[in-house]
Amino acid sequence: MSANPATKAPAGRPGLGAQLLRRKPINQMVEEAGNGEGGAPLRRSFGVFQLTMISVGATLGTGILVILGESVPLAGPAIWISFVIAGFAALLSAVSYAEMAGLVPVAGSSYSYSYATMGEGMAWICGWCLVLEYAVSVAAVAVGAGQYVNETLNIFGLALPDAFALAPSEGGAVNLSAVVIVVLAMLLLVRGARESAWINTAIVAVKVGILVFFCAVAFTAFNAGNFEPLLPMGAAGVSAAASTVFFSYIGFDAASTAGEEARNPKKDLPRAIMLSMLIVTSIYVLVAVAAVGARPWGWFDGTEAALVQILEETTHQPWIALVFAVGAVLAIASIVLTVLYGQTRILLSMSRDGMVPGIFGRVSRRTGTPVAGTLIVGTAVALTAGFVPLGALADATSIGTLFAFALVNVAVIYLRRNRPDLKRNFRVPLYPATPILGTLMCAYLMANLGADTWLTFGAWMLVGAAIYFGYGRRHSKVAALSEQDYRELSAGATDLDTDPATAKAEL
């Protein structure tokens, strides 16, 4: 019996199963690197310092400045252990990111790594998870910044009315502060990546300074008795908090989205990722210990902008709390800036593959940035930040992040087995134990997230499947390759030791 013609794949394209498994050749990625829709180039202007600052800027501060009030009640005084567990899980994935970033120095981060190793189906799932991770985390962090704006106003006896300070589900109309912060970051990114990077570097310096200052003040009120009992909610509480605060570590992979704007990505990206993880984890644990030492763990329940309140209650000097609150707003703004940057670059890479509309890949010749994509993403994120509360956003971000991290660990294993010939500037230590353990840790933390979060994730995946079958499957450029062209590209030798800026000329 002949097949129904309506169910056949388009002429020249593989069937559904073959398309989902079709991998994008690494040498094709290198050839396309740096170009947006229409051939306009991204500008290579980042060294290892700027890349490290992008990673630190996207990471440092989120969990400490924003979600202590939600995570400490879960773990009690052992919240610092939760940060260590989450940091260890992130580190296992970070070393895998470092190896893949050196091998595939392109803008798509783990989406591109999955496409090169596991095929179009898993690449789409990973890319859709990254949209959840980046866009929703920007909204969540912006909501947290709104809390610090209110704390700053409270010092002067002022406050935003609830209608403009809370999401509708919390009794307000719109979180205006969160919307404004996202819009300002969007406009700065439109101007240019280099200018945004230098502003981010300056803000990172402020961020580190205010956190060190907080520790210095908090340790003057340190009470060791606050750590007894260490595990009032048991090991399950520590695990639950670790799953929540993993949200605080998502930024390190932002550096990998700058692969096409780095001057020497094969060497600088791995260095930046590892340096940022060391800096961020050390500061998180130090601040968590200082905060719980200064106040009993029950005090944090329902507390917003906890660090500012600790400073004000410890010093009784409103100006100190004012300086910290203003610094915290700037610190959180740098996270919004760098993570929003990463989101636009991932969508640019997906657009280049035909997975999402070409408008996300149009690069302005004047600014060297994807202006239209930045405006679209920024507007969508601003609306989310204005109308959705923090808790729901943080958990949704964590599950998307963990899934993407697990895929990167699997990608390392795949390429070690199937492309051992590739020159690796950074190699995952203790292979294969490290990527296997990284995958298992991500699965463990995902399992500790609530049923509501899993339902949200499932709904998000269904929406993603509808978009893929409605648009991506028909517009995929890898699927459009003839079988002969695909085999030639897949078999073609690529010297990944060559600088990406010149590799395209050699192919």
Question: Could you explain the architecture of this structure?
Answer:
With 507 residues, the chain is mainly α. Helices cover 67% and strands 0% of the residues. The protein contains 20 helices and no strands. The protein has helices at 16-21, 26-32, 48-59, 62-66, 68-75, 79-103, 110-117, 120-155, 176-191, 193-218, 234-245, 265-294, 306-315, 318-352, 371-387, 390-418, 433-447, 451-475, 483-491, 500-506. The longest helix is centred in the N-terminal third of the chain and has 36 residues, at 120-155. The radius of gyration is 23 Å and the shape is globular. It starts with 15 loop residues before the first helix and ends with a helix.
Order of helices and strands: HHHHHHHHHHHHHHHHHHHH
Q: How would you describe the shape?
A: globular
Major sheet, described briefly?
A: none
The overall average pLDDT, rounded, is: 79
Head-to-tail CA distance between termini? 46 Å
Percent strand equals under 5%
User: How large, in whole angstroms, is the Cα Rg?
Assistant: 23 Å
* Structure summary, number of beta strands: 0
Q: Total helix count?
A: 20
Show unreliable segments.
1-11, 493-507
Structural class: mainly alpha
Helix content: 55-70%
Distinctive features:
507 residues, mainly alpha, globular
Question: What's the arrangement of secondary structure elements?
Answer:
Layout (H helix, E strand, L loop, with lengths): L15 H6 L4 H7 L15 H12 L2 H5 L1 H8 L3 H25 L6 H8 L2 H36 L20 H16 L1 H26 L15 H12 L19 H30 L11 H10 L2 H35 L18 H17 L2 H29 L14 H15 L3 H25 L7 H9 L8 H7 L1
Helix pairs in contact: 3-10, 3-12, 3-14, 5-11, 6-11, 6-12, 6-16, 6-17, 7-8, 7-16, 8-9, 8-14, 8-15, 8-16, 8-18, 9-14, 9-15, 10-12, 10-14, 13-14, 14-15, 16-17, 16-18
